[in-house]
Structures are given as C-alpha cells and as structure tokens.
Amino acid sequence: MELTVQQLTPDFCVAPQLTPDTMAALAAAGFKSVINNRPDFEGGPDQPTSEQVRVAAEAAGLVYHHLPVQGGYQSPEEIAAMRALLDAAPKPVLAFCRSGARSTKLFASAMQLDA
C-alpha cells in the first residue's frame, strides 16, 4: 500500500483520508502520533469513523487524536486545540483530512500561536 504523505516540517506531515488498514504502515514508517481532522461521515457512509481509525492506530502503537474541523473555517478554539496537540503529541506527527489541505491550514494557523 502506498501512502501519500506531504512533509511540512521534520516532525509534522499531512495526508489525505486514511483508513484503519493504513495505521500499521504509518507506525512502520516511524510516525508516533496521528491527528484526524475530519468529522465523522463528512464523506458519507463509506468514510471510516474516528473510532475505527483510533482502534487500528492504537493497535499499531500510535497515539491517536480526533480534532474534527470544517474545511472552510477553523475557530480560534480549534486552532488552539491543534497547537496543544502538536505541543504534547509524540513526534513525528501525521495529521489527515479529506485531502490534506485542511490539516495543512490548521497546522499553519496553530504554529502562529505563541507556545
């Protein structure tokens, strides 16, 4: 299985929608944490739920967080929550959403906050 991962910093990458069966490959690739920025069922009933991804991530030894945000707008509270996750999560971290763009925008906004 091929993973489409975009590295933004040495410790942070983004990816489009991931599935439970990709979690072991992420762990094998060296990731320590996964952040899911996609709301459940945003893509319809075929999209894996956060709970399904969490179970697989934890089984693979990954730390899992679900911070669902909308694609067009992330609130100051959501941005601050992302920053808190980034500061606390074991590195390297991979965040995902539908395409990777929302996680990229959320990361950029979170990194502008004072630690």
Detailed description of the structure:
Helix content is 35%, strand content 17%. It has 115 residues and is an alpha/beta fold. A 5-stranded mixed sheet has the order 1-2-5-3-4, sandwiched between helices. Strand 1 (6-9) and strand 2 (12-15) form a beta hairpin. Helix 3 packs across helix 4. The longest helix has 13 residues, at 76-88. The protein is globular and about 35 Å long. The N and C termini lie far apart (36 Å). One of its GO terms (molecular function) is hydrolase activity. This is TIGR01244 family phosphatase. It comes from Roseateles chitinivorans. InterPro entries: BLH_phosphatase-like, Prot-tyrosine_phosphatase-like.
Summarize the structure.
With 115 residues, this protein is α/β, with parallel strands linked by helices.
Biggest sheet architecture: 5 strands, mixed
Q: Tell me the number of helical segments per DSSP (H or I, 4 or more residues long).
A: 4
Radius of gyration, CA atoms, in whole angstroms: 13 Å
**Helix-strand sequence:** EEHEHEHEH
From the structure above, extract its key features.
single chain; 115 residues; alpha/beta; Protein-Tyrosine Phosphatase, Chain A; 4 helices; BLH_phosphatase-like; TIGR01244 family phosphatase; hydrolase activity; Prot-tyrosine_phosphatase-like
